[in-house]
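hey can u check if this looks right to u? its 416 residues, i copy pasted from the old doc so theres a chance i mangled smth
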Amino acid sequence: MILPILSGAKTGRTPAARLEEARGLAEAIDLEVTSAETVRVTRPTPATLIGVGAVRRLAESLRGQDIDVVVVDGRLTAVQQRNLELAWSCKVIDRTGLILEIFGARARTREGNLQVELAALTYQRSRLVRSWTHLERQRGGFGFLGGPGETQIEADRRLIDIRIGRIRAQLDDVRQTRSLHRRARSRVPFPVVALVGYTNAGKSTLFNRLTRARVFADDLLFATLDPTMRAVALPSGRRVILSDTVGFVSDLPTDLVAAFRATLEEVLAAEIVLHVRDIAHPDSEAQKADVEAVLDELGLDTEDRGGLIEVLNKIDLLDADRVAEVRGRAARDRAAVALSAATGEGAGDLLALLDERLAARRRTFVYRLGPGEGAAVSWLYDHGEVVARRDEAGGAIRLTVGLDPEDAARFENRRG
């Protein structure tokens, strides 16, 4: 059973959309949703979040059903979670707990698993009061584990803190490894283009379309957790590295954003960020606001990276009038592209816009090449825009060339 909790705060989302997203989150980990309803909370009740009358009514409804878990699509305190479980005689999890379950099921790499465990332990630490049945017991000790009289909850919290510390150290190693990989790419550099967007916006489908890869992509929330990178050739022949990242979601707890920062650091290193949007979704604008809020929290400055391109995806799900409207908007705004990742329609326009953006970053360089550097001259003609050439005495050539910063670095590396 799912209970989306609507407070008086404005979220930009309809109750129906909140209910549908909550259902999607539950189904993402193969929960069978037998019933779902929205409960409006004007003033949260400290003991149970929702009012006493609603708790009793739902208890009556649950009594005759074979319900294993109730998902409350809101944030519950440890006390509220425990009280609802007692009232309803079944397991109760909140939105954070549900998202953690999804992350745990989706993570595949060592880094992804570490990030999930860190977020789960941070969440669990605040819920020790309900996670163990022995918390009121006192236990003795030999002095090296905290001394006599230490309560079990203190011991459990201390053990969790030790594990959290170890995971953070391991994630620091992951970040250093990522930094080394980025430096390696800078020696044979290609611009990085990062895909970001609300979960299930179609990032992985677009990634597969552009790279011809087979990254897992399905109509599921959080189908992608671990970052994936592939090379893509643009129409000009220029190559870029495309990075697929974890999807965002509304009300994502700060702990989860922090835990996945190592993954999202690929976005911070990107030259261009593609914000993939499900333009057919009724809450597309609210989803856009959620993604932009997370990017702001990460400190992303898109102006220094050629700006952010909006990819208005899933036009194949729109009627003809709406498609014309979206295409017209993209035509007026050179920071947007309308396409369908599923059918491929408009994908060429996106690649052309990436070419245009990267070409705008070109700088002018002047090189003097000796008579024995014919291969270097050919390389500059192939990879840059030669705007001036002067043949000097002795067979030397002076070339004025427009190059991307990455190609200029590659050329310098070639020359040694």
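The chain has four domains: 2-102, 107-170, 190-360, 363-415.
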